[in-house]
Amino acid sequence: MAEVCAEMVANVWKVVVSEGDTVEEGDTLVILESMKMEIPVLAEDGGVVAQLKVAEGDVVQEGDVIAVIG
Amino acid sequence: MLSESVLVANRGEIARRILRTVRRLGLRAVAVHSEADADLPFVREADEAVLLGPAEPAKSYLDVERVLAAARSTGAEAVHPGYGFLAENAAFARAVTATGLTWIGPSPEAVEAMGDKINARNLMEAAGVPVADGTRQPVTGLLDAVAEAARIGYPVMVKTASGGGGIGMGVARDEAALTKAFDTASRAAARFGEGVPAILIERYIERARHVEVQILGLVNGTVVALGERDCSVQRRHQKVVEETPSPGLTPELREHMLKAAVRAGEVVAYRGAGTVEFLVDTVRRDFVFLEMNTRLQVEHPVTELVTGVDLVEQQLRIASGESYPMGVESAGHAVEFRVYAEDPKRFFPGPGLITVWEEPEGDGVRVDSGYTAGNTVTPYYDPLMAKLCVYGESRAQALERARKAAEAFRIEGPKHNLPLFTELLSRDEFVSGDYDTGLVSRMRS
Questions:
Q1: Residue B24 annotated in active site
Q2: Does the interface predicted TM-score (ipTM) exceed 0.85?
Q3: Which of B194, B279, B288, B292 is deepest in the core (most CB within 10 A)?
Q4: Domain co-membership, B265 together with B364
């Protein structure tokens, strides 16, 4: 299981995947927005989205878990 | 007569910079702010400050009714919009005037004429200002985009007709890339723009320099050019470093460009401070019109440093109808570094609490900052924390002073891009002056 974390304080602008989806390395999981910039959060490895910890409109802090890929 | 009380409808470094001139002229300075910005220097330094609302721009800085209510409650007589937010919103300009206040900016008609990039491009072409081959009508569908790109010839630049700040812009070198760029631009247009997404496609210039001209439209109708600024050091199509004079223009090219900028201002009967942006083709040694920004520009300090003109003071005087002739003389060289809350490698934003903030001082050094120690840089607004501006009698002296200033600037807490400046100042391509808009991406490839 690999945790994907937020690298910065940001708002969750778009959630691209759902729990149970199969993703490949480099796929966009969610798109964050911080300081007028869209920041895609990518899967570092392929696998199944076991948990999705954020919803659109949420505010994440640096280090918060966004998703768990198994 | 200057308005006795000026409300600045903006935040951060630019609000602070405008308020400084307002106070220097002996006028009352009124700030407006969001909850997130309550502790920032611009709020504390104003004679009066009004809370607009929550952090989200739509509920504070972009809320026309709240800004106008703040002007009424404080008895402000004039409104300065700064840049961004409501600065290029013609409806806001009209609302300010309709309320009986003085609008410190160009006419709403000029804002509208230049706000639509396709319209602006067509206006300039008709007036004899050079433009790049591109679309004269808004492109709204992918099929049209493909046909237009084929006509113009790849590579092409794809951008939104209404957007700014490099948002949604992309280069396409083939049809597959065009499809992607068109999608990106369309999404940006839907999100940031107004009405139907309209896309502009233009010939993409490889090895281009981005050079712009500062103009002032005077009360008597004449338009004056205050020299150029080279803004070719960019990341993600957004400026990071600007300098004047441009090290990449011949005297002939500069003269043509200044004349073209004056012509652009005359076409829309421009009044106040504006900036006409051009792209210089370093291979062909010519230039084309890019867009006009109908407001004070972020990088205006470099022009102020070499001309000695306070552009905000000029804006206030022109808005109040003061008529005077103006000659412009400039000397020396000035460079500006945009200190962003972002990492210096990938340029990803990194907001946070500022624990250490020490600005450099010294001959020729000017720092326009929006923050100080103890403030928090929040994710709600753009990442510009400060502008490190340096003047020298020559470019070499300006760069040498900049090296010392960049090293002396201490920021801890949020991520910041100061190391990028130290790196740039030791890179031959930048130091030689022979660079183009691809400089930063070459440094990071």
A1: no
A2: no
A3: B292
A4: yes
